[in-house]
Amino acid sequence: MAGARKVGIAGISWVLSEPAEPGMTEQQARELLRRANRGRRWWMVPTLWPRGRAAQERLQQAALAGNMTALLVLAGPGPLPDPRLSTAWTEWFRRHYEVRVLLHHLLRGHSPLSQEPAVSDPLGIIAMRPGEHELTDDMRPGIAVAAALTGHPVAGIARRKILAAGDQDVVDDVCELARDVPALAEFCLRHDLVPADPTRAACFLLLHGRYARYRAADPDGSLALEAYAGADAATRPRLASAVVDGGLFDLLHRITASGGEARTALLSGKPLAELCASLARHERWAQLWRHVIELPVADAVRQIGRFPPQWRPERAAERPLYAELRAAPAGAVAAAAADPQLLTTVELRAAKLIGLGRSRAAAIIRRSAGRRRSRDSDPLYLERYALPSGELLSRRPYDEPTYPVLVVPCEGGTVVAGEPASLWRYTDDDRTRIYGGCVGHLVATAGGWAATSATDLLIGSAQGELTHRVPLSDLGLAPGRSRWERPVDQLVVSADGTRLAFAGGGRVVVTDQNGRLLAAGRPEAEQPGQVSRGFEREPTAPVEALGFLGDALITASRARTVRRENKADVVEYGDRDWQEVTVHDSWSLVCWTVAPNGGLARGRRFWRVWHFTARYENEDREDTRHPDWVDWRLTVEELPCCPSGLLLTGVEGSTSDSDPRRAPVTRDRVRTAQVVLAQDPARYDALPAMSPAIRWNEYRDVNRPTVLPGTSYLTTGAPDRDRLQLYDLRRGAVLALLGRPVADLEPADLDAVLALSGYQDDPCVRVLRARLEHRFGRTTGRP
Hints:
By secondary structure, the chain is α+β, with helices and mostly antiparallel strands. Helices cover 31% and strands 29% of the residues. The chain contains 24 helices and 32 strands. The strands form 8 sheets. Strands 20, 21, 22, 23 and 24 form a 5-stranded antiparallel sheet that branches. Strands 25, 26, 27, 28 and 29 form a 5-stranded antiparallel sheet that branches. A 4-stranded antiparallel sheet has the order 3-32-31-30. The longest helix is centred in the N-terminal third of the chain and has 18 residues, at 48-65.
């Protein structure tokens, strides 16, 4: 901006929006003042007010920018400054939030009603009487603030008055403000201005890094300890940081010797990093090591890189721990400490469909050329990944006319169910159509895969080939009347992949992985005996969710009660009648075992393990459906990593089945996911690391937590649909120790680390094991 001038006050610099007019003459300034005064008589000539206001703002801006002529003209002939100068200064202080400390210093002892005179009078008087030997009582309240206005002529006037006065009370006042204003502190130290009180003087020198002068003034550190004890919450961290920067480690030890909040504040977070950096800078390696071994493992790994490569601890017993800390990857340990349950993340950019197999994942992905975002015209690819490593096993184009709706990876290929009706087997070089009907469900088993159609239970091998077709009629289920009908409502597989369970028409069937019938029965719906007042019970299916728990089968039934209240109100276009509908769903779980006669024997029952309540407005009183087909669903899965544990996931979905030839379109919101221990159904363990957000997925609610078939891992899709995340609760429970203070570790924690099979070579587990062995003096002999 032409003519603009950059100025700064108290270390704050800015560019004026208008020229500061440094060459403004007294005649020009008085002309502006005359216009401003005429503007006060706006009731006589209305056009005078905007002209006067513009002239006053121009004069005030020039005064604040450092034009002494404008400042003196605006202040007036005296003896007190004009109120318009007060308005200018007050507005400046309020607009620049960073210099609030100056305003607070000016307003000491003043009521809020006298703020403007308190701001303007001392500053204006100092400018009106610039003689360096003149420091009157009415200047004293503002002399320190005036000296802090770096870049303004008033600062030079005030500083000359301070040096000429030689008044220790004024020096104490200036030094008090200088603790928070570095530019003013630099002025004080340059001219040997320090507080008279020894404690305040030591604190002042320490805060501003004059360590040589501080050591001379406080050789035993008693003054600094007294200053720290009497400091406020804002000054204590600054003092501690100054002690660390100056390498005053003996003083720091005395500050933290009492423990409590002081030790916690100084030996954690940013102060801890500053302490370690200072110890390394002063090459105090033994002292740094004593701090590092008392830190949580994650913090110790972060700080161990400060040691020089040739350094080793003096004690031989500490060297194995030091070697493991040096070898541990800091990034991996920090990530594990931040999210212990997260095992790995597989990047799947623009995935249209994701399917899970036994330690594998398959995805239909739209790939774009270069780095641009994918478009609908870009080609589709079928990709297979190894889990949990995330290694890409194969990739091939997917250019079929059928749209994929279900996919399961196998060892020797990938099985894809397309739309409207087909089941394909894909290998790296070929594709084969293995079934021509409409497939409703597709899951991975220990021996391959299983699917259901309108008439058959389909069984496939690990190579993806179709090996068995079991008619549903042989299993006691009525087949569909058309190829589009779905007589099987659900199909689930046990954790070991050797058993299947499916429900349809009120009948539950359990088979082995080859389709051989093991048990069948017709569970009745579990209905609570009491209904809340005003609610009515609605009929529901006897089985709405299935799952396995060891050798037992778990069924979930829903009890639904509804309350409808007629409402009426007046709107713009007339009267409006509507209903407020409240729907309350609660689920109960029942445990079933296989009876000797091939039936299902009822076992333990858990009432009300999950419940939801929803309210909505129904303008069509004859329509009893939920709006937009909103419904609540519950999934039940066995959790191998938690003995006798179930993973329950509640899902709010909006479904539409208007076209029976299409797979249901779902818009799902995972409300919450919990682990329920079957021995104690009243205990619910939430999954803190898995909180999926709302996500649109055309065919499958893969964003919900689910168990990866054949493993103890949990998987969930990220909210942006571009990655698949794997969680291991067993590993997560152990790696949570990475961030735990050393004093809180227990011998049982070492036993838990040693019992974590499959992860003993994991660098995070290795360094944690080494820390626990050193903590409890136990040597396991493991590398």
